[in-house]
Amino acid sequence: MTVRFHEALANAQAFLAQHAGFGARRLLVRDLKGRLRVFLTDKVDLATWTRGLNQQSRQERDRLAPALHASLGAWSYNEAVVLQDAAVLADFNAAWDDPDARPLDATTHFLERGVIGADWLRTPLPNRPPAPPRATLFGLKGGVGRSTALAVWARFLSENKGLRVLVVDLDLDAPGVGSMLLPSADHPDFGVVDWFVERAVGQTDGLAADLAATSPLTAGDGQITVVPAAGLKTGLYLPKLARVYQGDHINGADVGFGGLVAELVDDLEAHWQPDVVLLDSRSGLHDVGAVALTRLHALGLLFAVDTPQTWAGYAHLVAPWRDAAMWRSDRLLPVRRNLQVVAGQVPERDRDRYLARLRANAYDTFLPLYDEEADAVLAAPDLLAFGPDDEAAPHYATPIYWSAVLADWDPVHRPDAVTAEQIEGAFGSFLERATELLGLS
Amino acid sequence: MALTFPALRHFRDASLLEARGRRENADQLYGLAAECALKEAMSGLGLPLDAGGIDLERRYYHHVELFWDTATAFLSGRPGASLLAVLGGDRPFADWHVDQRYRLAPVAPAALARHADGAARAVRVLDAARLQGHLL
After folding, report:
1. Is the pLDDT of residue A288 over 50?
2. Which member of B7, B12, B132 has the closest CB to residue A49?
3. Segment A191-197 mean pLDDT
4. At what angle do helices B7-19 and B109-132 cross, to 10 degrees?
5. Contact B132 A32 (CB under 8 A)
6. Which of A82, A103, A134, B129 is spaced 20 to 30 A from A408 at the CA atom?
7. Strands A299-304 and A276-280
8. Is the Cβ pair A91, B131 closer than 8 Å?
């Protein structure tokens, strides 16, 4: 009987639960191919030059390995390595304490080694220097009005609030907001992709100055400064894009792609001194969206339209956050507190019914983010408990109303094609709610 | 040259020597440890064997002052990209040579520190390759 990917993991977990006393620390690893191995040790703090398993455990290992191997099917390499002494690793403790290692129980950690997606379950980066509020506009699919909303919000913040707004285009696979806010000739010399490739060889000093330009959308006392994906001197885009996502290590610590994005945004803030930072995030479930939402201490505005694809997509993102009360309780609280669903492009007809349906679907989808009242893990003030109609709840979508005049609007080249009233009618609620959530009202 | 790589044995012994103040031999052994660690990691990623299928090809019969660059180049492809980040972009063993085993003069503290750090990084690459499944 063929064992499938997810069944193998369940079987491995069952094995480890069944033999809970075997080994003081058990690290279950799922590697690039999806294959599973358990590295285990009798010693809680394994020094680098001793064996991890005593003689009795080694015999137990020999006894148990064949059954474990058989239960994993194609997802185990062989009986010799499916269950092995942790001392084969130079630094087991580092793997045990890896930011990606998730506790399954008191003596078992689970470490995923995939190509992408690690940042989604990591916590916000520590030691953030005092900095302006940040917001990420995130959408699973393109075409939900994210970039237009960002442009309108940037103009609102600069014109109505007199703020210096920094806009960063992190949608590198489908750059948009840079071109929307800057005429081609007014792009800066370089863009986000250039920062990443220069960072790989340590050449980013002073680069922030060449990464941004002022948008003609700037009005009033404020300013809109835009960092596009690419600039006038970027040249061929694809060879640079191909090198963006690698991540890095500093002094042995895995900075990851998230760490690099954080460094980029910190660099930009240090040079440009904005009052607020708006990040346009990559659509979809890939690392950039994860980073922007979970690791940069940013408000996450989750754009949604009421379609099955939207809810299925967000359900994939939310599902791992439900795993194990210990996991949820303190690590992801800062993120869970900082989300707001936005209903992009609400249709003109039957808008109230559409919104009611969308909010109900959002409630069902995002329910795993909320705590039950009986959740004993968190203190009462930290509980995120909301009913379906709670207007303060993250799932209670803020509307942006679709209108024909806004669908093709080019805010830079034809700014007067849309009137202030039309913008207020479509974006009024969004501008008020988003600005309030950033503490800038 | 047979295809076994006791990288951790070399690395652990080098650390012991350094801790005991045996700096010159620690320095030598860190270089050998790094070489072994990188060769073991690369063998998992497909470093070519010779016609006999048992040893590495002769062109890889280098010590670490040259092999570090070979590893960097070898990792610059899809499977190795994340390992390259662990390795880092500099060349810590550029001033190391196996002939230093004949040297009587003491090793400079800065050089020893750099070689110890380089060896630690090479060993981290080995662990990372193992956890990713390139080695078992």
Report:
1. yes
2. B12
3. 93
4. 150
5. yes
6. A134
7. unpaired
8. no
